[in-house]
Specification:
Blueprint (H helix, E strand, L loop, with lengths): L3 H24 L4 H17 L7 H20 L4 H4 L7 H16 L4 H25 L3 E3 L3 E3 H21 L6 H19 L6 H16 L1
Antiparallel strand pairs: 1-2
Amino acid sequence: MTYAIPNILIVSLLFLAVFTVAEYAYYKKFPVFVTRKMVHIGCGLVTASLPFFVNLNVLIYLCAGFFLLLVWSKRMNLLSSVHKIDDYSVGALIFAPTIALIAIIFWPINLLIFQGAVLVLGLSDGIAGLVGKRYGKRKYCVTGEKSVEGSLAFFLVTLIILSIIAFIGNTPFSLQMFGFIFVSSIIVTIVEGCSGKGWDNLFVPISTALILLYIL
C-alpha cells in the first residue's frame, strides 16, 4: 500500500492545480461560467487518468473527500470559481458521487468504460458550455436553457471520444459500428440537452457508460 501514497499525492496535487488555476482566473475577472468549466474539464481529465495512479477503493475515498470539500467550501463561501454561479445548479455537488457510482459499476467490467464516460462528462459537457456561452445564438429549453451551437459542440466532442475509446478497445471497425457510435453520440447529446440545472453531470456519464458497455 505504500506505493499508493506518492500516487495519491500526485493525484491530489493535480486536482489542487485545477482549482488553483480556476481560482486565479476568477481573481483575474474571468467570467464564472469560464472558471466553472475550467474546473469541469480539468477534473474530468484528471479523473480519467486515475486508473493509472490508484485502485478503485482509493478512487471512492477521493470522491468522498472531493464531495465533502465542495459542500464545505460552498457553506464557507469559498471556491468562488465554482460556486459563484447565477442560476441554481446541483452539477458541482453531484459530480463526485456520480464518478464514484460509475466507477463502482463499470470499473470492474472495463476501465475504458469508466474513462470514456468521465471524458464525455468532462470534455464534451465542458466544451459545450463554453461554446454555448460564447457563440450560442439559437436557444432552446427543456429543463434548462441550452443552445444549438453548444449541443453541436457536445455532439462532435462526444463522437471523437467514443471513436477513440472504441479504437483503443480494439473494437472491430465497420460502417455499422461507426453508425452506432454516430447515433449514440446523438443520443447522449439529446440526454445532455434535456438535463438542466446540472443534472447532466449524472445522466450524461451513465448513458455514455451504457453505450460503451455495448461498444466494448
